[in-house]
Amino acid sequence: MKYHELVQQSAAYIQEKLGKIQAESTGLVTGTGLGGLTDAIDSQTALSYGEIPGFPVSTVASHKGRLVAGEIHGRPVIALHGRVHLYEGFDARQVTHAVRTLGELGVRTLILTNAAGALNPSFATGSPMLIEDHINLTGATPLRGHNHDPWGDRFPDMCHVYDPALRQLAVDKALALGIRLERGVYMQVPGPNMETPAETRMYRAMGADAIGMSTCMEAIAARHMDMRLLGISCLTNKNLPDCMQEASLAQVIAQAQQSASAMTTLITAILKEI
């Protein structure tokens, strides 16, 4: 079966089990430790990834692997509670299968969240960071291979990956709510190892403000399908190359969970206006 047919099979199953997804639904992808964002969804119906044909299932304990549909403040939302990563052994197309499925279901606006390490020394740990642009340093792309023309052009433009109007909305809402919102460039590396001090200096010199192991693949696939994108990172630790401290997965998850309240408040406020 061809890749686009697998995605269509997944979408058809979801429609069969959950009913027709509203065309104006906003998609939401929750990152490491941020699964609690789905608690804000009212009137939930859910499917586990394992029961959806073609869906890859995460091997990371902090990613529950559920698709959740419902409403936030009366606005229809369909959320991916957890994601899969390149470092788990999945290829770029498998990593973006779920986002492609949202596109097939009619989602035109997507909010991507992740847990990331701050590279910019002025950024505050625990704060959300608005992703203004990204650097894909994985050497991978979900667009490699045959292009399915109904999804998008073979060579999609990437001048404005993250929608300027949505970014401004996020800034306005954060200001109104009194939430400190950093703004910067996110870099994706393959993982799963953390960065060395020398790598941290290099990544910062390349223009990155935060670093993680997800998101860019999904953003590329979503833009290929002409979705409007908003990206927000939760800065769970700070990489200072001259005084590097260990950052275990448990610490990253704990900090993300502590910061989830501010992230939820901000994202729900944004959803009211989308």
Automatic annotation (TrEMBL):
One of its GO terms (biological process) is nucleoside metabolic process. SUPFAM superfamilies: Purine and uridine phosphorylases (SSF53167). Residues 27-272 form the Nucleoside phosphorylase domain. It holds the Pfam family PNP_UDP_1. GO terms for cellular component: cytoplasm. InterPro entries: Nucleoside_phosphorylase_d, Nucleoside_phosphorylase_sf, Purine_phosphorylase. Transmembrane segments: none annotated. One of its GO terms (molecular function) is purine-nucleoside phosphorylase activity. Belongs to the PNP/MTAP phosphorylase family. The purine nucleoside phosphorylases catalyze the phosphorolytic breakdown of the N-glycosidic bond in the beta-(deoxy)ribonucleoside molecules, with the formation of the corresponding free purine bases and pentose-1-phosphate. This is Purine nucleoside phosphorylase. It comes from Pseudodesulfovibrio aespoeensis (strain ATCC 700646 / DSM 10631 / Aspo-2) (Desulfovibrio aespoeensis).
